[in-house]
Design goal:
The structure is a homodimer of 332-residue chains. With 332 residues, chain A is of the alpha/beta class. Helix content of chain A is 48%, strand content 15%. A 5-stranded parallel beta sheet of chain A has the order 2-1-3-4-5, with helices on both faces. In chain A, strands 7-6-8-9 form a 4-stranded parallel beta sheet, with helices on both faces. In chain A, α8 links the parallel β6 and β7.
Chain lengths: 332, 332
């Protein structure tokens, strides 16, 4: 398998799950003190992960929670963000300009409480925020652990302990198994689509953010391939009209509450398109994970599959995913 | 001028502005009775207009307000929508399935208050909602009038009367003047881009929803032309990498608080792209509209310009904008 170190993957995910006591220690304090609402602040990939956290919470929570784009905060502000707001962010580099600037502004002018997940220590962001948890990768898992604890404390997730018992025991090895099972499929998809002039990605629910991010942060930014993401619910209100026999379309069909929206696209597409790919999490076994929790795990299943596709696209195109044409190379 | 009836345009906009007493009569009652939050519910084009209403309010309001996609509500729900929520919707046909179904669900299961703008009378939606205002077109103006009244009543828009005095006197004729001034430009843009394999539209702030809608509901749905919309703030976090010399990109630079985000793209683009179009509302005079209100009017300026472009694209492509390939023609 190209670009795949099983033990490293297992360690990475299991290590992330072990952050839970650190997360809970902080969240429990904040919850006891009280907060008015929860804001997930990001830009680019972290904006996308934030969208997923919000949809994840909406499934069962009455807590006011929303996404705030960091750059937009700098110019428009957001009066719902007050000193009583809990803000959650994640950053790989800890130096993304819009994040640094917006958090400084929030800290100085508003005084909200900020929890930051940072991939590395000693970055500019670390000095601004209230609480830092340093651990690489696994952004979505970190966000979901925060969301789940908040909902547990609000009596909206009574079986929280059962769920995390299953996660701690079975999550990492299941996701690794998905990657292995999807490897050949990933290679086939890559061979068929690595040279697409345009590729449409359709997703819904807790996979929408990842769909947006896969099109923009992976295919556009890392592969320099043109792509567009569309919410499954919105697909029928415009985009469907430009889909024809040869249009490349991938549909992510997950198992959260919005599954019917993606299923609707997946069922319709074969009538008008001969170049589609359906990725359905139901095709992947997750032993030890109860049926009712599979929806929570769907984004991680998709991630493992997408990573397989990307590894082969990278090789076929002889285009290292780490290089950028313009990003952080030109001034803007 | 193709597809342009000056008197009809003037009458349409001035008639919409005259809805204000009807809107205020209802909103004042709701405000006096009290409400917990404001939800703009839509799908496709009305989802886009809802995004604009939310950004418009965020400029100055602390009222909790959010967009809810109608189809997503049907499967995921939204616990922030309660009996104390004010819901605002708009519909041209009054029969869009996802809207009808979601509003029925809200009415029966939650009991929120629903204000509906409908283009025509006697449609299925009329029987579900609490209050109906029937008047064709001008969706964004209707939404902004609701938003502005809510903010006025919350003491967040003290110069509301000054603003609407200017709007009543000068808005319609200014927008018509913009259309006339932009006609030749519209024709030139259409001649250059009516056959684009792909066109990128970049927008921000209270123009973001319209940018999304212009790409999806106009270029994809009505012209069957491929296009993608990107938020200006997000442009630098992925999409920029697929822009090259010949990529067609349009940037909308408006005058609301998010102007700097679009300006940043407009300033950067010429370094890497030779096929861009910048549309800046500052190039259009709006006599009688104070400088401080021009940001509120920007989406309408863009709309008038886009309509000119679309009229010529339609003609050049000999593709009537009213026909649909699949929408409401196939089952899904």
């Amino acid at each position: 398998m190209r670009k795949f170190d099983e033990q490293k993957e297992l360690n990475s995910m299991n290590g992330a799950l072990k952050l839970r006591p650190l997360i809970n220690n902080f969240i429990d304090q904040i919850s006891e003190r009280g907060y008015s609402n929860v804001c997930w602040l990001g830009i680019g990939g972290t904006y996308a992960s934030s969208m997923q956290a919000v949809v994840h919470m909406k499934e069962k929570s009455a807590i006011e929670t929303f996404v705030q784009n960091a750059a937009e905060y700098l110019v428009t502000g957001n009066k719902r963000i007050t000193k009583d707001t809990l803000i959650i962010i994640s950053s790989v580099t800890g130096s993304t300009q819009e994040l640094v600037d917006s958090l400084k502004k929030i800290k100085n002018e508003v005084g909200a409480t900020i929890l930051a997940f940072l991939d590395i220590a000693n970055t500019p962001l670390e000095e601004i925020v209230d609480h830092v948890i340093v651990y690489p990768m696994n952004e979505q898992l970190k966000f979901f652990m925060v969301a789940d604890r908040l909902m547990y404390l609000a009596n909206e997730f009574p079986d929280y302990d059962d769920f995390y018992k299953e996660m701690d025991q079975h999550f990492a090895k299941n996701i690794v198994a998905v990657a292995k099972k999807a490897d050949q499929f990933g290679q086939e998809v890559a061979e068929k689509h690595h040279n697409d002039a345009m590729h449409y990605f359709v997703g819904a629910g807790n996979q929408w953010g990842a769909t947006y991010s896969h099109a923009m942060c992976y295919w556009e930014e890392q592969h320099w391939l043109r792509s567009k993401s569309i919410e499954a619910a919105e697909f029928f209100h415009g985009t469907l009209e430009v889909i024809d026999r040869d249009t490349a379309v991938t549909v992510y069909v997950g198992e959260d509450t919005q599954r019917p929206l993606s299923e609707r696209v997946a069922k319709f597409l074969p009538q008008i398109c001969g170049n589609y790919t359906i990725i359905d999490t139901k095709d992947y076994e997750l032993p030890g994970i109860s049926e009712k929790y599979r929806g929570n795990v769907s984004p991680f299943v998709f991630r493992a599959i997408n990573n397989r596709i990307d590894a082969y696209v990278e090789h076929l195109n002889r285009h290292p995913m780490t290089i950028r044409r313009y990003y952080r190379r030109l001034d803007y």
